[in-house]
Amino acid sequence: QFPFGRRLPCDIYWHGVSFHDNNIFSGQVNKFPGMMETVRKITLSRAMRTMQDLFPLEYNFYPRSWILPEELSLFVAEVRMIKDSNPSWKPTFIVKPDGGCQGDGIYLIKDPSDIRLTGSIQSRPAVVQEYICKPLLMDKLKFDIRLYVLLKSLEPLEIYIAKDGLSRFCTEPYQEPTLKNLHQVFMHLTNYSLNIHSGNFIHSDSVNTGSKRTFSSILCRLSSRGADVKKLWSDIISLVIKTIIALTPELKVYYQSDIPAGKPGPTCFQILGFDILLLKNLKPVLLEVNANPSMRIEHEQELSPGVFENVPSPVDEEVKVAVIRDTLRLVDPQKKKRKDTQCLLYPGIADGKLQLKPVKIQVKSGMKDKQHKHHSLKLS
Ligand code: ADP
């Protein structure tokens, strides 16, 4: 921190929230310009829709979404049309205010007419999304996965995915949504910030029990039940790559406007938080991308009524320390000087084990014909 202004240029600048400093002419910054805007709920939904129109099968990992208020009539019309053609379809929708986080302002509805048009929604745009009614449960509870992804460079595209992440559990046994239970946030929303207030939240010192566990502990349990964990990982990796590919056009516009080619400026990297839900058949579904994932490794504990203390959280520590450590290793300026990096796993590092694994990207996009079937997007 530089309370009296910065005098010497730095190798690495670690900004708290976003890329906001136009007086950096060298080194590396831990944020991309425009990332916060690009991953907001509405912008993400738009980017995913564009790709779903072009590559419907490749992008079927993102729930059908509409933007409110501008697409309200489209939402109503499409739902009516699908219901007319398939009367047994009994959907639930989740309404999420744009720019919200930690479950703030989120609610579930059964019918488009239940959208709250008075008050906040009018002034606050939102995304309404098909609600995933049959998520994979563990111990009868819904959970989601927070994975950490390092976007190391936009051009060339370099992405690393942390080998471990967090699984955040609901605190009420899950039931498929009905009009009676729609409002039960501890049953339907996996946000830590909400569930921590439930009397059932379990802080555990072990990484494989409690309301927050490591993703690897979930994989172990799935694998012991005979699930194809390798396939799950490869589906998750392609979800991450395809999502970032969907975001790159917008990110490049911001990048070129803030750091024009030919002018001295820093390079950027960024740790992103991907929130993913697993379906019963283990298909991963993207819920959202977080530009500023919490890196806290402690949680608050109430010692006596009204008296709180920060205590270490072993699960957060296990996952997040590795992410920060490996990010610093990967962007290490000394490393860069020693050898203009091409190698993705650094053999020079003492233990040689990076928790962030590189993903290989090879995109082929054939635009031979206006028909969708001629577009191809292959990842290897
Ligand atoms: P926020 O940024 O407020 O956390 P999210 O999009 O992550 O918003 O949604 C909050 C929670 O709601 C998620 O963690 C998940 O448990 C649940 N959720 C969000 N979207 C869906 C969906 N389409 N289907 C089922 N559950 C969802």
UniProtKB/TrEMBL annotation:
<protein>
    <submittedName>
        <fullName>TTL11 polyglutamylase</fullName>
    </submittedName>
</protein>
<dbReference type="GO" id="GO:0070740">
    <property type="term" value="F:tubulin-glutamic acid ligase activity"/>
</dbReference>
<keyword id="KW-0067">ATP-binding</keyword>
<dbReference type="GO" id="GO:0015631">
    <property type="term" value="F:tubulin binding"/>
</dbReference>
<dbReference type="InterPro" id="IPR004344">
    <property type="entry name" value="TTL/TTLL_fam"/>
</dbReference>
<dbReference type="GO" id="GO:0036064">
    <property type="term" value="C:ciliary basal body"/>
</dbReference>
<dbReference type="GO" id="GO:0000226">
    <property type="term" value="P:microtubule cytoskeleton organization"/>
</dbReference>
<keyword id="KW-0436">Ligase</keyword>
<keyword id="KW-0547">Nucleotide-binding</keyword>
<dbReference type="Pfam" id="PF03133">
    <property type="entry name" value="TTL"/>
</dbReference>
<dbReference type="GO" id="GO:0005524">
    <property type="term" value="F:ATP binding"/>
</dbReference>
